[in-house]
Amino acid sequence: MQQRKLTSVILSAVIGTALLTGCGGGQAGQAANGAGTAEKAPEQSDKAKNQAVNVYTARTYAVDDVLFNQFTQQSGIKVNVVKGKAEELIERIKREGQSTEADLFITVDGGILNNAKQAGILQPVKSPVVEQNVPKQYRDADNQWIGLATRARVIVYSKDRVKPEQLSTYEDLASDKWKGKLLVNSSTVMYNQSLFASLIELNGPQKAEEWAKGIVANMARTPKGGDRDQAKAIVAGEGDVGIMNTYYVGLLLASKDAEEVKVGNSIGVFFPNQATTGTHLNISGAGLIKDSKNKENAVKLIEYLTGKDAQTQYSKENFEFPVNSAAQKADLLATWGEFKSQQVDFAKLGTNNAKAMEIYNKVGWK
């Protein structure tokens, strides 16, 4: 009887452990459907928590999952992932407070990273390794978020109908010579908001508004679709020039779809404002959650993601620019050569966002 009772206890413990492990694995890759509807991050025993890190991320790229798996293989620390929209994840972490399971917040925009800092959900990352891996310009002033990769927002053009010497600056896209020839997506797209926020910072609100009016006047069609759709519209002859992020050009060229590869080969990439204020950069970054239960593991993950090997993978697999200068760039990025980038504090992309949206609405950029 005692033997049977002991066997039952052991079996119950095994089943409980299996269920706990299953909950953790099922969370990976799950999207948060809204501020109040996302599934709760997996609960773990104290022992399991010492070998885990919970990441709330707005990045949805395959390379991220690959890097998380590699980190686990090398460190033995499991990465539990909750995916969702950045602002919803911020609100969720705020709502959860000290009970949050989140250890790291990762997103793709400098303005949103600043919003997370202003929301009071982050704490400084203290790591000599991180400081060596990531130059100061790619870190928050208080180290509350750390850059992981950058992408440039550039001018793309039809190789058949436009010569590179016809291009110069973002500001020039608002001139009459591009009337009816410009393709760009909606003002609701975060990357357009941050580009405009940077122009407000560099040129002032009045000049920025004049630029936005000119852009609207020159649009070849009502804004629609994503960045890759602007490139496809150029090749289809709907317009001659467009605005898009560099990494999308790489994704077109690396696509398994022959038509997308054709589109990628048919457009040229131009880095604007090289003689003036530089090309606009945006940044992906990771912030350490103030109430992290696995702080040491979270810092280890940041150290790994900013290391040479992981940075090389960000570039070669997702065509992003590494923040660690020791990393190798993807061959495509290397062919574009070095370029001058804007010297704008990434935090300004957040603080100028409200003004950017006010002007967008005023000038009718849909």
From TrEMBL:
A Pfam family that this protein carries is SBP_bac_6
Signal peptide (from-to): 1-28
Q: Which residues form a coiled coil?
A: none
**Binding sites annotated in the UniProt record for Fe cation:** 247-248
Q: InterPro entries per the record?
A: Ferric-bd
Family annotation (PROSITE patterns): PROKAR_LIPOPROTEIN
Q: Which GO terms describe its biological process?
A: iron ion transport
Cellular-component GO terms for this entry = outer membrane-bounded periplasmic space
What UniProt keywords apply to this chain's record, in alphabetical order?
Ion transport, Iron, Iron transport, Metal-binding, Signal, Transport
- A single Gene Ontology molecular function, please? metal ion binding
User: Which PANTHER family does UniProt cross-reference here?
Assistant: IRON-UTILIZATION PERIPLASMIC PROTEIN (PTHR30006:SF15), THIAMINE-BINDING PERIPLASMIC PROTEIN-RELATED (PTHR30006)
Q: Which family is this protein grouped under?
A: Belongs to the bacterial solute-binding protein 1 family.
- What name goes with this protein? Fe(3+) ABC transporter substrate-binding protein
| Organism expressing this protein natively | Paenibacillus piri
